[in-house]
Amino acid sequence: MIRLLCLAALVLATPALAETKQQRQDRCAIQAGIVRQAVDLRTRNKSEKRAGKLILKSDPIAGSKYEQNVDVLVDWVYNLPKQQLEPETIVQFETACNEFIQ
After folding, report:
1. Buried b / exposed e along 9-47 (16+ C-beta atoms within 10 A)
2. At 63, phi and psi to the nearest 5?
3. What distance in Å separates the CA atoms of residue 102 and residue 86, rounded to the nearest whole number?
4. pLDDT digits (tens), the chain, 102 positions
5. Predicted TM-score of the model (pTM)
6. What is the rounded distance in angstroms from the CA atom of residue 42 to the CA atom of residue 32?
């Protein structure tokens, strides 16, 4: 699972030449928020398509550069085994994202 989390963090890292630690933390927190929403919607039996639409309309995603991450992260969450739909998965995702240095 850690490998999947690291891969997701690598794929979703917003390109930036001089991203500060604070900027990375902010980016990772927003991406972890997308994962959190997707996990919640999946556990409430919402379809993957519906989850993506709802997340795209949510704050702080709507109209932001993070819209491009929604489909990939929602797809990732909807392909996780059900036993991984827990808060620890979200924490591990955010940790892996923060540890990735471009």
Report:
1. beebbbeeeebeeeebeebbebbbbbbbbbbbbbeeebe
2. 75, 10
3. 28
4. 655 555 555 555 545 457 899 999 999 999 999 999 999 999 999 999 999 999 999 988 999 999 999 999 999 999 999 999 999 999 999 999 999 876
5. 0.81
6. 15
Cβ distance 36 to 74 under 8 Å? no
Question: Quick one: tokens of 66?
Answer: 């993070």
Rounded to the nearest 5 percent, the helix, strand and coil shares of the chain are 70, 0, 30
Unique residue bearing structure tokens 């991450």 = 69
The first and second tokens of residue 7, run together, are: 């891969």
Residue of 2, 9, 54 whose CA lies nearest to 27 = 9
Count other C-beta atoms under 10 Å from residue 69's C-beta.
22
Amino acid in position 1:
M
